[in-house]
Amino acid sequence: MKRPVQSQKLFARAQQILPGGVDSPVRAFKSVGASPLFVKKGAGARLHDVDGNVFIDYVMSWGPLIHGHAPAGLTRALTSAAKLGTSFGAPSPLEHQLGERVRALMPSMERVRFVSSGTEAAMSAIRVARAATKRDRIIKFEGCYHGHGDAFLVKAGSGALTYGVPTSPGVPKAVAADTLLAIYNDLGSVERLFKANRKAIAAVIVEPIAGNIGVVAPAPGFLQGLRDLCTKYGALLVFDEVISGFRASAGGAQGLFGITPDLTCLGKIIGGGLPVGAYGGRADLMELVSPAGPVYQAGTLSGNPLAMTAGLWALNRLKPSLYGNLAYLSAMLASGFAEVAREAKVAVQVNAFGSLVTPFFTNQPVTDCASAMRADAKAYGVFFRGMLKRGIYPPPSQFEAWFLSAAHTDQDVADTIDAAAAAMRDVARAARG
Ligand code: HOZ
Q1: 226 Cβ partners below 8 Å, 6+ apart?
Q2: pTM exceeding the 0.85 threshold for the entire prediction
Q3: pLDDT digits (tens, 9 = 90+) for 216-227
């Protein structure tokens, strides 16, 4: 790897204008003891930095790029769409076309409202749930991340974990008090909250496949148990499928596990790499949203024609063969990580689901936030730096998922495992001191 001289210069300059030099905390590489690389371009499964380094990318913009960076068909579609205008602030047919496509893939989305980010989707879905139930409290799970709305920054995952502020300053106590915390994969913790807060809980919001403490799959029966508890106590079940939607399967986690949530939040893949979110679900609930109903929510760039074009392009290409290949590659990557860790005598648990993988540097199984937090983030930092210098771009945090795409090949994964073997030896050496 060439020394990242240009990246370092740009980072110094960026810090004079952007807080921490970035627009989203994890990108600063702080928790892996490195300085961020500035990107020149993405192509297929490759990321090119401004110093001329080329990496096999496993961040893939944190999930949206299931078809890889800048596929030719998508850039063509976007160029044509841009010529017709980049924003209208008025309805275009693309919005209901994408909505219908989403509903065809995820039938629980009887009505859909497009917004511009997953954060907006989650905030708005909870507003609908509160309006529909006339209750204020919500249950979320420790380490689950639903964007940065006030109600969700309580023991949140993702960057909130590594930056030491899982419950952010600036969130009013009164707002945080209405967010009750349960333990992922622990139905007992959910039922106890329902019993202690009778007729006060509007919704349970969950990542059906947790992706913001690293990847953690739902235990058998966990999602069905949540469905049953919500029905029993008159609360709504909200699936945050911003990561798992169209990544776990074309029908999302809900299709895969056969669970029907009342409301769903989407983002990432539905925008094909452009800024999009959506929330939707039961028609009777979504008809509460303005102008059909009284629950207010609006956005200048909502349903943006370029974002809708990219979303349609991406969703129209979700073929079963894509998922088969992604599952094959992620199994190869996961077993490769496990094997090279064993060879280097480094304690690693590899969690994988669909096209998501996380090697946790711990000898204990990772099933929830507390067990994820037992992973050795310092060891991950050594691993990360070892991978980077060998041409692999992993997520810059122990507590994030690695994302595969249609552009990754067997050879890419084989090269990644070779790099991981050497990086694991770096970890073992660092542990010996
Ligand atoms: N919240 C994202 C990871 N789960 C990071 C987004 C970004 O930095 O782009």
Answers
A1: 187, 190, 204, 206, 237, 259
A2: yes
A3: 999 999 999 999
